[in-house]
Amino acid sequence: MTLWTSADAVAATNGKTTCDWVVTGVSIDTRTIQVGDLFVALTDVRDGHDFVAMALEKGAAAALVSRRPEGLPEDAPLLIVPDVLVALEQLGAAARARTNARVIGITGSVGKTSTKEMMRSVLEMQGKTHASIASYNNHWGVPLTLARMPADTEYAIIEIGMSNPGEIAPLAKLAKPHVAMITTVAPAHLEAFNDLAGITAEKASIMDGLETGGIAVLNGDIDTASVLRDHLGDTTPIWFGHADGNDWKIKDVRITPDATVIQTHGAGEDYLFKLAVPGRHFAMNAVGVLAAVQALGADPVRAALDIFQWLPPAGRGTREVLVIDGGIDDGTIDLIDDAFNANPTSMAASLEVLSAVQPIDDIGRIGKGRRVAVLGDMLELGADEVATHRDLSRNEHLQKVDVVHCAGPRMKHLWDALPDNQRGMWRETAEELAALANKMIDAGDVVLVKGSKGSKVSLVVDAIRKLGHRHAL
């Protein structure tokens, strides 16, 4: 299906095209480019202009450039603009303007991507849905997501992130959501902000982009909820959470080894529904999703039924069984891959999940199945990072963990604070710890790997997977 014609793209960007063309997608990466895509030659870590020829060889129908790369034939299909990023934003704005889709923008310190995927899974059952891929939520990810949006989209889900002050509002104004959702506010990116109130104010600025009559779906349980209230202006809020006074009130959450059962009341109805994974933090996000579905004008009752189909994205709480000893019955481990992001809030939630899963005894070398945590540094926590890591030793769910392995200089403070019977291995880097994967696990174990993406603790996940045969749980 045609996404952009050269004429439409010229009208959106005021650029100049070398010929007529039609594209069916938009890409910034030659590694994943599809035949028929428009290749956008962004300049970031590397200059995308160096890859235009490769993109065209792989089947790109045209390239968005600010200059003609050397060596291209004269008839190469190009859209030439003064600034490629600005032109991408213009394409995004034009795509947003031409659709009648109901649009939601999602931000938050924790749970943006998981919530976006939950939202996608339920809205896809109610209409044609377009959403950000992966974590494309920054200054180029948001306009790229918009530029990829088909004109006949019915629901659009735009994830919006930030690392520094002033980043969210411009992206929200580009997306122009009808609904803005804030999953939660937690101590993340504190190095760029004075305090939690500053982070909350930045998250609240997603409301600056709301369409007239827009609705804000907000976490009513956070300590800085008053900052969100102060930012509302004429915006209608829908609050969700455990506390009394929330419009969508969570009445009960029950964590089992394989599921989360949730009771909530919202929009005049009582709901009892289930997620196919354990996690109190997932329960909070799920109730926020139902509130947002209501705000979008879709059906929250149907969403409550369909949300059971959702599973976490890779690296965000994904569970799988690995066969590590094929010579014995049940020679497996249960691996929880949560290696993409970490802050104190999400760390506590992941440890609760680990504590709820039962290991299997009498099948491994040790004879007793264990709960094993492999923890990497939590980054960007500011001045309190040492105490924040050390104080994890007092977490109630960590008390149920048998062995804790740590990677990174920050996690050394936790490792030092652990009692001898819990203290596993510590290494300066995740790469060093990954080399010892075979010494960390045994058949029957339940293993959580958790850390900030920058800690590279995902290397441990990869090393553990290589020890066995992977089966989705």
From TrEMBL:
MF terms in GO: ATP binding; UDP-N-acetylmuramoyl-tripeptide-D-alanyl-D-alanine ligase activity
Catalyzed chemical reaction(s): D-alanyl-D-alanine + UDP-N-acetyl-alpha-D-muramoyl-L-alanyl-gamma-D-glutamyl-meso-2,6-diaminopimelate + ATP = UDP-N-acetyl-alpha-D-muramoyl-L-alanyl-gamma-D-glutamyl-meso-2,6-diaminopimeloyl-D-alanyl-D-alanine + ADP + phosphate + H(+)
InterPro entries referenced in this protein's UniProt entry, alphabetically: Mur-like_cat_sf, Mur_ligase_C, Mur_ligase_C_dom_sf, Mur_ligase_cen, Mur_ligase_N, MurCDEF_CellWall_CoF430Synth, MurE/MurF_N, UDP-N-AcMur_synth
Protein name, UniProt field: UDP-N-acetylmuramoyl-tripeptide--D-alanyl-D-alanine ligase
Role according to the record: Involved in cell wall formation. Catalyzes the final step in the synthesis of UDP-N-acetylmuramoyl-pentapeptide, the precursor of murein.
All residue ranges annotated as the Mur ligase N-terminal catalytic domain in the record: 23-88
Annotated ATP binding sites: G108, S109, V110, G111, K112, T113, S114
Localization (cell): Cytoplasm
Keyword entries, A-Z: ATP-binding, Cell cycle, Cell division, Cell shape, Cell wall biogenesis/degradation, Cytoplasm, Ligase, Nucleotide-binding, Peptidoglycan synthesis
A Pfam family assignment: Mur_ligase_C
Chief location: cytoplasm
Enzyme class: ligase
The Mur ligase C-terminal domain, residue ranges: 332-452
Keyword Ligase in record: yes
GO biological process: cell division; cell wall organization; peptidoglycan biosynthetic process; regulation of cell shape
Associated pathway: Cell wall biogenesis; peptidoglycan biosynthesis
EC numbers, comma separated: 6.3.2.10
Family label: Belongs to the MurCDEF family. MurF subfamily.
Keyword Nucleotide-binding included in the entry's annotation: yes
